[in-house]
Design a protein that fits this description.
The complex is a heterodimer. Chain A is an alpha/beta fold. Chain A is built from 13 helices and twelve strands. In chain A, about 40% of the residues lie in helices and about 25% in strands. Chain A has an eight-stranded mixed beta sheet, with helices on both faces. In chain A, β4 and β5 form a beta hairpin. Chain A is globular, with a radius of gyration of 21 Å. Chain B is α/β, with parallel strands linked by helices. The chains are: A alpha/beta, B alpha/beta. At the A-B interface, α7, α8, α9, α10 and α11 of A face α8, α9, α10, α11 and α12 of B.
C-alpha cells in the first residue's frame, strides 16, 4: 500500500477500521460523465475522529455516501474492518454495513419522518433488523437512547415538528446510537444549528466517542469546528484530497495553498484582527497537476497532493515554518 | 441607547412591539425595542433563530408576514413614521428604493426563469424610469461592480448557470440598482462557503464605502460581526440585550448571554476540553415573559432576574446592557475565563506560529 497510508510501525499500533483505497466516484448524465471524487485514498483508525473538510461541491459528502453504499464507486475499494463493502456484495454483508455504519445528517428537519412519532423515528432501525426480543425491550432501548442524548421519555409520543433544531439533531443522534454502530458518519451535523446549540451537540458527540469507543467521520466546511473536534483532517478540493495530517499538525504546518486559504477564511471573533485581515483567494490554476501527482508524505503522517518535483518546495516551506517557531 | 446628541440619524426606532397571530394564540416577536441607526455606520444585529432579528428589520420595509402586526411604537425614516404606512403603493417608494434587502438564499430571491440581465434591468426601469437600452448598460456596469467577470456575455444567462457566490453578487447588484440609503443584509453569507463568504463580505464593505449607504447586517456568526460591524446589537427573545461599539461588545461584554455566545465559539475551544454550551433553549414567546427572559439559562442569574425585567444600564456613552448584574446593588461577577483577555488570546492564535497564524 502506498500513498497516504501511515508508516508500517504506526499501523501496528493503530487498528484500521475503514480503508478507502484509490476510490473514484463518477456520475453520468446521459453521455456526459462527471468525476466527483478522484483517487480518494485514506484510512480511518478505530476510535478516532477523522474530518473531511472542503467547500460545497468538493465531493466530501459523495465520499461519505460511497462508504455507506448510497453512491456507487467507479474505481477502487472501500473496506470496513478488512472486508470489502463497495460494489457487488452479499445481502448479509449489506445488512452488516447498514447496521454498523450510521449517518447523522446535516438537516435534522429533513432527515426525520414528519408523520412518525419520535418513538418510531428512533426505533426504525430496530424494526428493520429485528433487534429486540419484545416490546418491553424495544421501549427500554428507546428510553436509553433518549436519555443518552438528554431528551425525556415523555418526548416519545411527539412529532419532529414539535422540537427545536437542536432537539431534532439529538433525535438524529439517538437513532444512530440505538443501532450500537461501530462507525458514525456525521455530515455537517451542526451547520443547521444555532451557535448556542452547536456546542451542546458537539459535546454530546464527544462524550459518546469516549464512552462507547465510537469512530467518527466528520464532514465540515469550516476548519474552526474541526480543529476542536477532529484527530486527523483531510482537506478536499474539487474531488481530490489535497492534504491529510493530524489536526494539530495541519494547523501548525498547513502546506497546501488551498488549506492555507481555508484557514485564513475562518472568521475570528475579534474585531481588530478580523478588520485587519487580508483576503487570500486560492487559484487552483496555479497548481501543478501531472499524471505523477499524488498524495505524498512530507512528514510522518502528513501528506500533501503534489508532483514529485514539488517535494523540495514543500520541504522548504515546512522548514521555514519550523524556523519561525524556534525563533520565538 | 437613546442618546441622540449630534449624531446623524438615518433611522430611529422607538418602543417597537410586533405581534403575530398563530392560530388562536398571540406571539410577541419583538418586545419593546428602541434603537437609533447612525448614517453610514455598519450595524450588526446578532442573535439565534427565533430571537426576532429578521422580524425587527422586516418592519423597516413593510415585509411582515400577513399574520404579523406592529402593535406599538414608531419607526422614523426621513421624517416619516413607517409604522403608519398601510398602502403597498406607499411602501414601494421606500422598499427596494430607499431601504433594500439582501436575503440569505440567493436561489430563492432570484427568478429562475428570467435571465440575470432582465432581473437587474427590470429594477432600474421600474425605479429610475430608464429606457431598456440605458437599463442594460447600467446593469452591465453594476454586474462588473459586484465582481462578475465578462458581464456583457453573462447578461443573458439564467440563475442556475451561476454559482451560489455569483448569485449572491447578483442579488447585491439588484439591491444596489436603486442606490438605496440603507442596505439590510439578512444572513447574506450563511448559505455560502467560508472562502466565498470572505469575498462577499469584502464586496459589501467596498460597495458601502463607494455608494455611502448604511448597512444593517443580520447574522448569528460572531466572526462575521467582528469583520463587518461598527456597532453591535445582541438580540435575545425579541429584545436587544446588549448594544455597543464592536470593540466594546467583543472586548468588554457585559451581558451573560453575550458571554455565552462568545465562549461557545469553537475557535476559542481547547482541544480535549469540553466546549462551553449555553444550557437549555430560548423561551416560548407565546407566554408572557416574566423578569429577564434569559434567566432560566443564565448561570449568573440573580433572584430579581426571575421577578423583574432589567432596564438598560449604561457602561459607556455608546455601550449599554440589559442585565441586573450592572445594578450597583448586584454582587461583583467576573466574566467567564473564555471571554476574558479575548484579544490577547486571539492575537496569540493568529500571530506567527499560532494555530491560525499567517504562513506565507
Amino acid at each position: 500500500m502506498s500513498g497516504n497510508k501511515n508508516t508500517a510501525a504506526e499501523n501496528r499500533e493503530k487498528e484500521v477500521l475503514v480503508s478507502v483505497e484509490h476510490v473514484d466516484v463518477t456520475f453520468t448524465n446521459g453521455r456526459k460523465k462527471f468525476r466527483a471524487v478522484t483517487d480518494a485514498n485514506f484510512d480511518i483508525y478505530k476510535g478516532e475522529t477523522f474530518a473531511l473538510v472542503g467547500e460545497s461541491g468538493s465531493g466530501k459528502t459523495t465520499i461519505a455516501r460511497a462508504i455507506i453504499r448510497l453512491n456507487d464507486t467507479s474505481a477502487g475499494d472501500i473496506k470496513f474492518m478488512g472486508k470489502k463493502i463497495n460494489g457487488k456484495i452479499s445481502k448479509e454483508d449489506k445488512q452488516w454495513v447498514v447496521r454498523n455504519i450510521q449517518m447523522i445528517f446535516q438537516d435534522p428537519a429533513a432527515s426525520l419522518n414528519e408523520r412518525a412519532t419520535i418513538d418510531y423515528c428512533i426505533s426504525e432501525g430496530l424494526y428493520n433488523f429485528n433487534l429486540f426480543k419484545d416490546e418491553a425491550e424495544r421501549q427500554q432501548k428507546v428510553d436509553w437512547a433518549l436519555q443518552q442524548v438528554g431528551l425525556l421519555p415523555e418526548h416519545k409520543s411527539r412529532y419532529p415538528h414539535e422540537f427545536s433544531g437542536g432537539q431534532r439533531q439529538r433525535v438524529g443522534i439517538a437513532r444512530a446510537l440505538i443501532m450500537e454502530p461501530k462507525f458514525i458518519i456525521a455530515d455537517e451535523p451542526i451547520s443547521a444549528l444555532d451557535v448556542s446549540i452547536r456546542a451542546q451537540v458537539l459535546n454530546l458527540m464527544n462524550k459518546f466517542k469516549l464512552e462507547r469507543d465510537l469512530t467518527y467521520m466528520f464532514i465540515a466546511h469550516d476548519l474552526s469546528v474541526v480543529r476542536y473536534f477532529a484527530d486527523r483532517i483531510a482537506v478536499i478540493h474539487h474531488g481530490r484530497i489535497v492534504e491529510i495530517a493530524p489536526s494539530i499538525e495541519l494547523f501548525r504546518y498547513p502546506l497546501h495553498p488551498y488549506t492555507n486559504s481555508l484557514l485564513q477564511a475562518v472568521p475570528m471573533p475579534d474585531p481588530q484582527i478580523e478588520k485587519a485581515k487580508k483576503l487570500v483567494v486560492y487559484d487552483s490554476s496555479q497548481e501543478l497537476i501531472t499524471e505523477n501527482s499524488k498524495l505524498t508524505e512530507v512528514r510522518p503522517g502528513h501528506f500533501v497532493y503534489m508532483d514529485p518535483s514539488e517535494m523540495e518546495k514543500y520541504q522548504n516551506k515546512l522548514a521555514a515554518m519550523q524556523a519561525t517557531e524556534i525563533a520565538e | 441607547m437613546t442618546e441622540t446628541n449630534n449624531k446623524n440619524l438615518i433611522l430611529s426606532v422607538k418602543d417597537l412591539e410586533v405581534k403575530f397571530k398563530v392560530r388562536d394564540r398571540v406571539l410577541t416577536a419583538i418586545r419593546n425595542i428602541s434603537m437609533d441607526f447612525e448614517e453610514g455606520k455598519v450595524v450588526a444585529i446578532v442573535g439565534e433563530s427565533g430571537s426576532g432579528k429578521s422580524v425587527f428589520t422586516k418592519t423597516f420595509t413593510g415585509m411582515l408576514e400577513v399574520n404579523g402586526e406592529i402593535s406599538n411604537g414608531t419607526i422614523m425614516f426621513e421624517g416619516q413614521d413607517l409604522t403608519k404606512i398601510t398602502k403597498d403603493s406607499e411602501w414601494e417608494k421606500i422598499r427596494g428604493k430607499k431601504i433594500a434587502t439582501v436575503f440569505q438564499d440567493p436561489m430563492t430571491s432570484l427568478n429562475p426563469v428570467k435571465t440575470i440581465g432582465d432581473q437587474i434591468s427590470e429594477v432600474i426601469i421600474k425605479h429610475q424610469g430608464k429606457s431598456k437600452q440605458e437599463a442594460k448598460e447600467l446593469a452591465i456596469q453594476l454586474m462588473g461592480k459586484v465582481g462578475i467577470v465578462d458581464p456583457e456575455n453573462r447578461f443573458d444567462e439564467y440563475p442556475f448557470m451561476y454559482s451560489g457566490g455569483m448569485r449572491q453578487r447578483i442579488v447585491i447588484a439588484i439591491a444596489l440598482a436603486c442606490r438605496p440609503r440603507i442596505l439590510i443584509c439578512d444572513e447574506p453569507t450563511t448559505a455560502l462557503d467560508v472562502t466565498i463568504q470572505a469575498q462577499i463580505i469584502r464586496l459589501i464593505k467596498d460597495l458601502a464605502e463607494e455608494y455611502g449607504f448604511t448597512t444593517i447586517y443580520i447574522t448569528h456568526d460572531l466572526g462575521v460581526v467582528a469583520n463587518v460591524a461598527d456597532v453591535v446589537a445582541v438580540m435575545y427573545a425579541g429584545q436587544i440585550i446588549e448594544y455597543g461599539g464592536v470593540e466594546e461588545v467583543f472586548y468588554d461584554a457585559r451581558h451573560p448571554y453575550t458571554w455565552g455566545l462568545l465562549s461557545s465559539l469553537p475557535q476559542l475551544g481547547e482541544k480535549g476540553e469540553e466546549l462551553f454550551a449555553i444550557r437549555g433553549t430560548p423561551p416560548s414567546l407565546f407566554e408572557k415573559v416574566k423578569g429577564d427572559a434569559f434567566a432560566p439559562r443564565n448561570n449568573y442569574a440573580l433572584k430579581i432576574d426571575y421577578e423583574q425585567e432589567p432596564p438598560f444600564f449604561k457602561v459607556t456613552d455608546t455601550h449599554y446592557a440589559k442585565t441586573w448584574l450592572l445594578d450597583p446593588r448586584a454582587p461583583k461577577v467576573e466574566p467567564p475565563a473564555a471571554v476574558k483577555n479575548l484579544h490577547e488570546r486571539m492575537t496569540a492564535l493568529t500571530s506567527k506560529g499560532g494555530i491560525y497564524g499567517e504562513r506565507e
